[in-house]
Amino acid sequence: MSLLKARKSVYLERRFVSYVASDKKVEYSKYGSQKDKNKRLIPTVIDACKTRHYSKSTQKTYISWIKKNIFFHGVRHPSEMGEKEINQFLTHLAVDQKVSASTQNQALSVLLFLYRFVIGCEIGDLGNVIRAKKKTSLPVVLSQEEIKSVLYNLDGEIWLLVSLLYGTGMRISECLKLRVQDIDFSNNQIFVRDGKGRKDRVTMLPSSLRQDLLNHLERVKYIHEQDIEDGWGYNQLPYTLEKKYPSAPKEWKWQWVFPQNRRWRNKSNLSEGRHHIDPSIIQKKVRKAVFQAGINKRASCQTFRHSFATHLLVAGYDIRTVQELLGHKDVKTTMIYTHVLCKGPQSVISPVDNI
User: Fold this and answer.
1) 147-189 pLDDT tens trace
2) Which helix (H) or strand (E) holds 217?
3) pTM score, two decimals?
4) From residue 194, how far is each of 202, 211, 329, 346 by CA, in Å?
5) Could you give the residue ranges of the DSSP H alpha helices within 73-179?
6) How far apart are CA 56 and CA 118, in angstroms?
7) CA torsion, points 252, 253, 254, 257, in degrees to nearest 10?
8) What would the pLDDT profile of 26-54 be if each residue is shown by its tens digit?
9) N or C: lower Cβ tally within 10 Å for the chain?
10) How many domains does the chain contain in total?
11) What is the extent of the structural domain holding 88?
12) Residue 14 burial by CB count (10 A; 0-12/13-18/19+): exposed, middle or buried?
């Protein structure tokens, strides 16, 4: 980035902060209602997301796209723009930024959310906005030998966590959010709470990982008891459960299965506890293990979930069972893994071979 572009970026950022984060009134002359005139843009977007129980990562994504749209149009307020400006921004993403169709549609969804629930403009008033056609791509799947080689290059709790991803079909976020009470050793099952789409489901607990998981929880429990002796040991609870059950944050059953090494500090009351491991740590470890295994596929943490579903279908399990284990709302989503059941051109005998 040149010095001129860097200075322009800093200028736009300062102008944006003073524009949407100030206490001055924002006139929604075209779209807004009277009660929104005194609202600030970004706090209003965050409130709209929280009202619909969107995750923090979703809130960050929404704010990021809204900022990019505002910067692209010279720090103009969204209430001063409409269909024309939305199409210009989407065209910029496709032509100049060369983003994929899914990324372009994600930006469109964020802007439609902004105009519908924040600005107050009905979706029909936006006219014909550009919608990119998303292509259907096959998931990356590792063979069992490739998975063995990747796990061979991992150790400790990272090995256990990645093994659970492949053995249960959980997403990386769902595995990291596991609490001690979510693992039912007596029935060999794991409860996935508040998964994608805010849905709960049950998946299996692999018998080969049972003892390793028990040993891991013994170490985690020892660390938790040490934190309590030091006067800490608190954990964040979902929603307002902490107010309903004041002693629950220190209870063992509410602790993370994969806590981080360092304690976090609550600035409001100066209490300390442990959050779960950051997903970026697992992702970096997996990328390194894939490289060390000499695998040229574009594998990630999500690849183990794809491999879980694919290998179950190959083993003969029905697609409805796989759908329930993955937590898919529609069986059409699960059907993307059925490509492995097709034998492909290798099984077709060419007519010339029969001559």
Assistant:
1) 999 999 999 999 999 999 999 999 999 999 999 999 999 999 9
2) helix 210-229
3) 0.75
4) 11, 26, 14, 43
5) 83-95, 101-113, 144-152, 156-168, 172-176
6) 18
7) 90
8) 444 444 443 343 358 889 999 999 898 88
9) C
10) 2
11) 3-126
12) exposed
